[in-house]
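Example with several molecule types.
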Amino acid sequence: QVQLRESGPTSLRTSETLSLTCTVSGGSLNDYYWSWIRQSPGKGLEWIGNIFYGGTTKYVPSLKGRVTISAETPNKFSLKMTSVTAADTAMYFCARGVTVTTVVDYYDSWGQGTLVTVS
Amino acid sequence: SYELTQPPSVSVSPGQTVTITCTGHELTRKFVAWSQQRPGQSPVLLIYKDKERPSGIPYRFSASNSGDTATLTITGAQAVDEADYYCQAWDNGVVFGAGTKLTVL
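Resulting structure tokens for the full complex:
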């Protein structure tokens, strides 16, 4: 059973760069999409972007230019978000995306999330 | 940009049946997934490929997708089903509905 765990600083100042890592255990990055999803306090889920195991990335247009998702090692991937503001305060989840077609069709595994606060 | 619309909240009495809708343009052309998120927890996959249930998900959860509307049905709702429910599809990126809060009372 694959498990995902987010790690990284949980408190940032405005204009700093958010850097999070997702460690995947019980499996490698091969054959799946790997995503970052966030949830502002009391709000719904917001997709940030994903990386396919071959290295192809896609980001939500509203964050494009500020966000980079990279594969760090065979079982880690990361999120970098520049110039954060209070609006970026959220729980950040990493998740494994499964494809039935050629895109992310559903998420079958999620990390427990890490709360990042920007002040 | 593509939008998925869900009712903000629904309620059901224990043992009764409740439906949660998710509406998007020509949604039937896309695969819809549903996830459940209990307070303080990560989302859990309930339904994928419109109506498929992962192993371990109770039979009382079922779903369909036709036209512009996907529907999640809980038959015989239990107190443990009180949670937020999100639909999800792909349209030039992953799109989530805003979520529906289910109250069992």
